[in-house]
Design goal:
8-stranded mixed beta sheet; 12 helices; Rossmann fold; two-stranded antiparallel sheet; alpha/beta
Length: about 350
């Protein structure tokens, strides 16, 4: 089978969830036009995520007129007098079949308790965000620009972006756009740092696809069935194997499975355009500090994919043992959170 057709098949298999696409990277800001807003009262998820203590849900209106769901959890105030230590805000970006709720479960409470203002976004047509006109939610460019618009209007100081899986690839596009000479204006606000969690590598899924097909054919079939055919939505064992550790209890997997079913009303991207839009443009003299974080038991992004991303940013990868792809929801979610906290605390030292 030809390389192109294999990549097309496996893109659908690996990512309608993670390995998705965008328009050409040659597109500039001047070519972007706002999408038509399709506002609806039906945006609420039929399986609601109940906010935890200290969390609130707001909606950020984008230039297109569409509104983006944001779950906010501000840092806990110190009870001592004197100037409070200033810490960079954290902005979290999910992957496909997820939404802002996936960060609000564990990591928002953890990082707000550690002194950070936290914002978890739901990309368009995901979670309770509005749905644009068309068959897909957007492109790498439009999703990155939506994040940038939120940062520009709602975040007071340069934030650290935290992206999971395909959200990590969107953040890579954001980074590549910082200071780009192709932009007519500074659309992308400065960042303090970026954290790529089990991220799709900058070249997309092609390398992963061929490695899985030749070295892990059974795994390749399972991932294709799970994500392309959406079998994770009906098979509890397959959902667990795709996203979580084997020790996660059935009732917890079931809860996340139901939330994931409801999280995506449109695919994030037109998958057929993936190969034409990647790799992400290189970022010589990368203007931000980057942490590349992987999971040892990741069923989707393998060690070579993790290493590719780390090499792209000239940083050593960090791989967390006994954690699966959905690091922020998994049984040992605190392992990755502690690695991130340590890395952030070391930025200013």
């Amino acid at each position: 089978m030809a390389t192109t057709s294999m990549a097309g098949v496996s893109v659908s298999g690996f990512h309608n969830h993670h390995f998705a696409s965008s328009n050409s990277n040659a597109a500039t800001i001047s070519s972007w036009k706002p999408v038509v807003a399709v506002l609806s009262n039906k945006n609420k998820m039929r399986v609601p995520f109940e906010l935890k203590q200290g969390q609130s849900r707001i909606f950020h209106e984008l230039p297109s007129g569409l509104s983006m769901e944001v779950i906010v959890q501000k840092k806990k105030k110190k009870n001592v007098e004197g100037e409070e230590e200033k810490k960079s805000p954290l902005v979290f970006v999910h992957g496909s079949y997820h939404a802002a709720w996936c960060w609000a479960e564990h990591w928002l409470p953890f990082f707000s308790a550690s002194g950070f203002d936290c914002y978890a976004l739901s990309l368009l047509a995901q979670g309770e965000s509005d749905v644009p006109d068309g068959s897909v939610a957007g492109t790498l460019e439009t999703h990155a620009r939506d994040i940038a618009d939120f940062v520009h209007h709602k975040v007071q100081s340069p934030p650290i972006l935290v992206g999971h899986s395909f959200g990590g690839l969107i953040i890579q596009y954001y980074i590549s756009s910082l200071g780009s000479n192709n932009l007519e204006e500074n659309t992308y606000p400065k960042l303090r740092g970026a954290i790529l969690v089990c991220s799709v590598p900058p070249s997309g899924n092609s390398g992963l696809v061929w490695r899985y097909l030749f070295t892990k054919p059974i795994a390749a079939f399972k991932v294709t069935r799970s994500l392309a055919a959406k079998a994770f939505q009906t098979s509890l064992p397959l959902c667990r194997e795709t996203f979580f550790s084997a020790t996660m209890e059935d009732h917890i997997v079931k809860r996340y499975q139901e939330l994931m079913k409801e999280s995506s009303r449109l695919p994030l991207f037109d998958l057929r355009k993936l190969n034409a839009s990647l790799p992400v443009p290189s970022a010589p003299n990368c203007p931000v500090d980057v942490l590349v974080l992987g999971a040892k038991d990741d069923f989707i992004v393998d060690a070579e994919g993790l290493n590719e991303t780390a090499k792209f940013y000239s940083v050593p990868p960090v791989c967390v043992d006994a954690v699966a792809h959905d690091m922020m929801l998994d049984v040992s979610w605190e392992k990755g959170a502690k690695v991130i906290l340590s890395w952030i605390n070391g930025l200013d030292k």
